Amino acid sequence: MRRNLTALLALLVGLAxxxxxxxxxxxxxxxxxxxxxxxxxxxxxxxxxxxxxIPAARFTSDGRFVLRLHSLNGLGSAELxxxxxxxxxxDAQRAEVARVLSDRRTGANAPIDxxxxxxxxxxxxxxxxxxxxxxxxxxxxxxNSNHSLGxxxxxVLPGVSDEAVAAYARSxxxxxxxxxxxxxxxxxxxxxHSYFWVDRSGPGRTARRSRSRSRRRRGGGMQEVxxxxxxxxxxxxxxxxxxxxxxxxAATVAxxxxxxxxxxxxxxxxxxxxxxxxxxxxxx
Length: 284
Hints:
This protein is of the alpha+beta class. The protein has helices at residues 2-28, 38-48, 91-100, 114-127, 162-169, 213-217, 227-239; strands at residues 67-71, 77-80, 132-136, 152-156, 175-180, 185-190, 195-199, 222-224. It has one domain. It starts with a helix and ends in a 45-residue tail after the last helix.
């Protein structure tokens, strides 16, 4: 009897094992991330840059430029009226910026550095664009990036080339400015020492800083550009009394990666490219 019971248990275990193993294997398989072709992405990116799809630039009766931010990730828009000609936004408007610059995956947000908002305002006012399209703002998991500190944004100014946006931003001082010619946007962050770069990573890829000079000569990885210009811009800003940061201290903000304070002489390592971008109308 005992022998028969043991044989029966062994049979049941043998029958159950094949059913359990595939289920466990299925659970381990990572979910596939949606991807689009480069040609489709370029068509979408052209819409982001299309000036006819956005409102006209607006000014108050006393000549203050009105900043309009629009999330390309379905997080809405915000119109901000500065306190004075050169910027300055109250806490309520800063909260609106945090909403538009929320993490596109989780919807989480964090305080956005006051100087970053003023810099975006300054760039938009310089080109008099009716809307700034936000590709990415706060990203909680980007721990080796100023995005996780509320100090960075990836931007498109419709009707203005990315290189023109970057060229002007490089003149401001105490900024990280990255051009992404394949992905089609400009990264801007506030930091203690300016650093300018070009990264030719495509959509859906993560930028990796290349420390090898030979790789940089071949055009791979993240390439520093205009190093002398960065020092000159900081010197001018320092002479004008510009403070590099505008304050983002908050318990909800993820810390920078250990050994990287987020404002060193490196690009925004780990800056993630858009993968399957939204196609909502730019002027929505």
